[in-house]
Give the backbone structure.
Amino acid sequence: METELKKYKVSEIVDGFVYNELEGKGLFGLSGKLTIQPEYQRNYIYADGKKDVAVIDSLLKGYPLGLIYFNNVDKNNFEVLDGQQRITSIGRFTTGKFAIKDANGREQLFTSLPADKQSKIIESELLVYHCEGTETEIKDWFKTINIAGIPLNEQELLNAIYSGTFVTLAKAEFSNSSNANIQKWSAYISGTAQRQQFLATALSWVASSKGQTKEGYMAKHRLDTNINELKTYFNSVIDWISGVFRDVEKEMCGLEWGRLYEEYHKKSYDPSKVSKTVQKLYGDVYVKNRRGVFEYILGGEKDTKLLEIRVFDDATKQTVYKQQTAAAQKKGESNCPLCAVGHDANKSKIWEQKEMDADHVTAWSKGGATTIKNCQLLCRTHNQAKGNK
Ligand SMILES: [Zn+2]
């Protein structure tokens, strides 16, 4: 890859600047020669009233903004490879999209700044490396850079590597923060549209349902002109979750819904019964892991390991061990009640405490509490044989 260093004035860069409010994208600059947001770039994330303001402050104070990289598409057309956020911030400010505070704390738009400050901004010079290389070289290089302190996440990299019609359509659906479905999706999927987490989730669900990786799926569908399969599968999962679970609990967010859908969507559930069970388990002080509640219910309320039922504490175990052992020694039988009723050599064996585990006499699933009254110690073998409680 070849590079050439050039200096541009801000006034040149923002000449012909267009900002697309709906998509959150800075589009063009350099009198139309510069594409600010190429297909593989992320959406603009600086518009938080801090980072964008900091860019303008830096210009006013004469601080360097760091290197910017352009990719030469041809002699007269360039794409921003790195620096899109900074350029968009400057373009948005000079076109009056946000204000900064002056020394007296008053909000100032670009046009209300004193002339000397306006020209300080407009005359600032930006250092730009023009790069030339094949698409593969550019994208490989793009994989290795961090854009202005916000590292690209995995999905953003994949979007860059597999850019094309499919990614464009998929981003329009899943990475568009004005999509009205986002609120519903957010109940089950953590992250934001802008940082591609909904797209990442949608892709991983459909890919793994076909035994493929996300990368494999993106590569295979790269030139597709529709995203029907992706969208249909995603909506099926979301509709299934909200159909089975009427409650929306915060612990539902970020669960492995794709896997759960594959495992359980063919089973039928009674949503009002499911809802009662969810509420009962949420009210149960012995349930430590609420995130396990949903899979526990889907699996027919059998695998209590998912709930991480609260265990007996050490003090309780020690007290019970002492009582149990003293009583057993008196009777001349094993301190494991199950060994004591057996017929082998362990019938009168006194186990050490470290050889025993605490057990719920009445299982938690049958209403047994995690209290000293419901605690007994069993030898390892018998405790394991008693199995899931
Ligand atoms: Zn035993």
About this structure: Residues 336, 338-339, 378-379, 381-382 surround zinc ion (CB under 6 Å). The mean pLDDT is 89. The longest helix spans residues 314-331.
